[in-house]
Amino acid sequence: LKRLGNPQDKFRVIHVAGTNGKGSTCAFITSVLREAGYSCGLFTSPHLVEINERFQINEEVIDDDTFLCAFEKVKKLSDELVAEGSYHPTYFETLLLMGMVIFAEAGVDYVTLETGLGGRLDATTAVEDPAACVITSISLDHMQYLGNTVSEIAGEKAGIMVPGVPVIYDGNDPDAAVVMRENAEKLGCPYYELKREDTEIHKITKDGIRFSLKDETYGDTVFDIPFIARYQVMNAALAVKTIQVLEDQIPVSLEALKAGMAKTRWQGRMETVLPGVIVDGAHNEDGVEKFVETAEHFQKEFPLTLLFSAVDDKDYTDMIRTICTRIRFRHVIVTQVGGYRKVPVEELAEIFREDGVPEVEAIEDVPAAFERAVKEKGEDGMLFCVGSLYLVGEIKAVIRRKKL
């Protein structure tokens, strides 16, 4: 970064870590800042269809020319480093360096920066002076890198904290909350813990959720978010709290806050892509639990169809078991994604059958599987497409092609 002229010093950063909900929380914060009239960059991962999605300026994905220009700058530096006997930046480091160049050249005021893996050793911690650090829910994922317990993983995520910089975190898991508090106190960080009981859900419909924050600042203010999953309320609350904590540095009116929350867009997380068709990249234990919670709410009103796929480094047997224990589907279709990490469709279908689903179809080709699933949904039902971000990406690519 120093060799690139310290582009990260040309804007303020809100740094976001966590197991689930990082991207959504980043999207809420960015949408609110945009509504308040600030120019914003957004750096997230992974992408669903095109790599450009990882970089947004004022909520628009960057174009190919901007991407290529930044890549060439970073590639030139990488070649110089290798020639000097240093090392070539990793894939993620290259993307982070590109992001910092892109946002500096665009002249943005703020960047919402999502960590990659973990926090303590994450490349994003090269940004040393964030305005705030936000840590979303912590659960067991990437255990081969981050640790075998929630406390160990929380310790890695807490590694983004910077002395004296405010920390806003999800305190629902008591083990994770203890780690967050201890780290914040050790570093002299003002810290703000949020739990589910700090929020009140007023209404959940097919169009979104109305909720309020039990907070002196906002009193009876009701926020609308355009997502149907209950877990998004926690991510939204973290975003609201972050804006509140930063009000002296970054003034945002209540009108802009409410409008920004209501207009937030985020791909692949309980996202409605067509009427009655929802895609969700849930691919770990916590993500699947949250998906099931949402589907349980809607199965009271609508017949449900499921399109499912998974990759082989996820515990797909447990995922399927959790889903089938609590949700009744009119029809299940399984398909294949992930290249060399794919799980054969017949293997997935067999697990669903063992778990008592009578109507299971196996279709290897994703576009054909999606078309079949939409047909099975019918006029009266809802279709959930779940199990992998690869599946979400391929479905969105299919929809995009059809619109073209």
Description of the structure:
With 404 residues, the protein is of the alpha/beta class. It contains 13 helices and 17 strands. The strands form three sheets. The chain has an eight-stranded mixed sheet with strand order 4-3-2-5-1-6-7-8, sandwiched between helices. Helix 1 packs across helix 8. The two termini are 39 Å apart. 46% of the residues are buried.
Question: What's the helix and strand layout?
Answer:
Elements: E1 12-17, H1 22-35, E2 40-43, E3 55-57, E4 60-61, H2 64-83, H3 91-106, E5 110-114, E6 132-135, H4 143-146, H5 150-157, E7 167-170, H6 174-187, E8 191-194, E9 199-205, E10 208-213, E11 222-225, H7 232-245, H8 254-263, E12 271-274, E13 277-280, H9 285-299, E14 304-308, H10 316-326, E15 331-334, H11 345-354, E16 360-362, H12 366-377, E17 382-386, H13 389-403
Parallel strand pairs: 1-5, 1-6, 2-5, 6-7, 7-8, 13-17, 14-15, 14-17, 15-16
Antiparallel strand pairs: 2-3, 3-4, 9-10, 10-11, 12-13
Work out the helicity level. Answer: 40-55%
Helix-strand category: alpha/beta
Rounded to the nearest angstrom, the distance between the terminal CA atoms is: 39 Å
- Neighbour order of strands in the largest sheet: 4-3-2-5-1-6-7-8
Overall shape: it is globular
Order of secondary-structure elements: EHEEEHHEEHHEHEEEEHHEEHEHEHEHEH
Which sheet architecture does the biggest sheet show? 8 strands, mixed
Rg over alpha carbons: 21 Å
Q: Overall pLDDT, averaged?
A: 92
Strand tally is 17
Which ranges are low-confidence, i.e. pLDDT below 50, for 5 or more consecutive residues?
Answer: none
Compute the number of helices: 13
Beta fraction: 15-25%
